[in-house]
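Supplementary Methods, section 5.1.

A reviewer requested that the exact input to the structure prediction be made available. We therefore reproduce it here, unchanged from the version used in the analyses.
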Amino acid sequence: METSAGKRRSKRLANRVFMFGLIILLQGSIGGTGASPAWSARLPDDLEEAILYRLENDETGGNLILQKARKAVESGIPPGVIAPVVEHCLDRGVDATSTGEILDEIISARERGLPAAPLASKVLEGLAKNAGSQGILIALGKVTERMETAAQIIAVSGPRFSTEEGYGRLLAESSDAIAAGLDRDQLTEIIGIMAEESDGNGKLEPGDVIELVKTLRGYGIEHEPVTELVRAVVRDKDIGPGNLRSFILNFVNTRKKGETGDLKNLLTDPSDSEGVDPAETGLETADEASEGRSSSGLETADEASEGRSSSGLDTADEASEGRSR
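The structure derived from this sequence is encoded token-by-token as follows.
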């Protein structure tokens, strides 16, 4: 017959086995999803209060948005990314159901491994331009589809990343480049060049290079000269982000003057463009220059590829900075 001491030892052993199994189960679950533990993710108190206050006469709607926003944070989306989406939807009078659908789109993309920030920015763009919720959802679908295309290409032949931020930026820039006219095969070729020449230039991130490609395609430059420039850039150890910014400013200036020539001649030292006011190029900021907007009237990469959108969506940078035309 088992003694009292023996029963206590058996109970302690059973407890240890149970806790060990629970820990392994939880670690496997978290590791498999790549998301932050749900219990460590929390919606900011001020956002919860704002939702409840703004929808105090719509308890069902308030609870719906709270549920979706909490799910977004639990899925790994930073509160700083999701909060502006909710706040601006409330400010613009978007109904609770539509706001929930917008959050669902962002959450779904995140769960498929896509960055949430570009989608959140697209929502802000639409709201800044008074686009309807359906127009915003359509735009989110297009951005998601383009980022998935880029993700498939990168998975096969792209460079490797040490940070999620760098990977997310390349997906976002690639999406814009596709919208500006780059097709799948062309993007595959350019990303392949960056992977092949990964030891050539340590100053540039892949996102820097694709941003350059997006600019050139937004201005209608054909694929072959763009590809040649990409090869030259990634092989030159002395070219950094400042050089690319100078190139963009120089390129925009020459195009406005109606001049053409060898693109490589515009790759100057950053000091060569010091004192150049972006306003002289007809572009409000250097970011706008890199987004391919020109005197042709094409305001965004999406507009360049679609001829013109009826949704009224402009660029992410303009929405986040409160600029509108």
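Residues 158-312 form one domain. These observations are discussed further in the main text.
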